[in-house]
Amino acid sequence: MEPRIDMFGNEIATRFSKRFANSAQVIHRSPLPKAVQELVSLRVSQINGCGFCVDMHTKDAAAAGETQIRINLVAAWREATVFTEDERAALALAEEGTRLADAHGGVSDETWSQVRKHYDDDQLVALVSLVALVNAANRLNVIVRNPAGSYEAGMFAAMLD
């Protein structure tokens, strides 16, 4: 599979990607736990069918020390016993925030209440921003059909400096 356009070789795409990466850096440096960041990024990408981002987030999560069992079970987190209550709340928010068209009310009050129990304001802002940012990245990659499989863990770290 070939991408429809080279988003890594186009000047406008490169300028946009640097700004996009700067937004990601704000979240990466936030007090939101790194494990939650990776789990949420992976789940949003799974929902959106973004192979490129699923590839990236599984490899980055593994490189950051996430266990293979947890990575494998993100898609079935409700039925899995390997996630904490705070991770479950974040994954519920990620799903409802991603499936806005499916849930006409957006994120439910119940889910919001759960994330408020586990995260402070800074963490919650980072979590909401992460869901929005990953959804945007998924859409870019799905639209241009960036293929999965060639990502190497940490490949975009230089863009974050």
UniProtKB/TrEMBL annotation:
Record domain Carboxymuconolactone decarboxylase-like: where: 24-96
Family matches, as Pfam families: CMD
Organism: Saccharopolyspora taberi
Transmembrane segments: none
Protein name: Carboxymuconolactone decarboxylase family protein
UniProt cross-references to Gene3D superfamilies, sorted A to Z: AhpD-like
UniProt xrefs under InterPro entries: AhpD-like, AhpD_core, CMD-like
